[in-house]
Amino acid sequence: MMRILILSVSLWLFTACSDQQGSTEINSVAESTEEQMGTVVESELTADVITEPQPIIEYIWHKAGPQFSEEALAEAANTWNALINEGPYEIRFANILTPHTDNDDYDFVWAIAWESMEARHAGWKYWKDNQETEWRAATSELLSYSEEGAYSFLPTIQRPPGVESDSSDFEIQFQFCSYGDEVTADQYAAFQEEYEVWLDDYQAANGPQGYWYVALEPQFEMEEPSDFVWLHI
């Protein structure tokens, strides 16, 4: 099985769209590329009935344990890679996301890109039946998590990067957004078209950029529903 790659990512805290802006930086624990990251969101949503399995990205909240360190987490990532490679998992890539600011719910987030929701369910079952006990014993002082703190999204690329980056350090941002009063889906579409034009103009003036963004469709019931979720990379 292909070796699963792990990144250590600084994550902007999940908030609704507002004037508050956050930035993140990524420190590589294992080599990765934008091409590899892009494979998880290569499917486009259309008005037609979708018959092919759609890739899913899942974010699993983790709390740091008393013996947590970046070095220990990197070693654990290697152990996790080995466990994943031993099992029948259908995974495209995995990242570790850590916020810039403190959060009561999590200290970092383990992101897994599954081939499909069915692959996600099968993967969790195999993990619990065969490998979770070993993993928890090895990481009991390092981290903790539960499946109840796992949130899945259907990703769709809205704009690919203008140029691939060979750097392992980059910024990401999540936006959970709701329409304003009397704003319609058509107005949102018009806004997105204007945003694309602005990005095109910027790139024309400044050269190809590595920026890209993804729409994330929640596969769970959100406590505070959003009209759309964007991931900026």
Textual characterization of the structure:
The chain has 233 residues and is an alpha+beta fold. The protein has one domain: Alpha-Beta Plaits. The chain is 29% helix and 28% strand. It has four helices and nine strands. A nine-stranded mixed β-sheet has the order 2-1-4-5-3-6-8-9-7. Helix 2 crosses helix 3. The chain is globular and about 50 Å long. This is ABM domain-containing protein.
Main traits of this protein?
233 residues; alpha+beta; Alpha-Beta Plaits; 9-stranded mixed sheet; 9 strands; 29% helix; disordered N terminus; ABM domain-containing protein
Short account of what is shown:
This protein is of the alpha+beta class. Helix content is about 30%, strand content about 30%.
Fold-level CATH name: Alpha-Beta Plaits
Shape: globular
Computed over alpha carbons, the radius of gyration is: 18 Å
Rounded mean pLDDT is 80
Percent of residues in helices comes to 25-40%
Structural category = alpha+beta
For the record, the count of structural domains works out to: 1
The CATH class name reads Alpha Beta
Largest sheet: 9 strands, mixed
Put simply, the count of helices is 4
Organism: marine metagenome
Protein name: ABM domain-containing protein
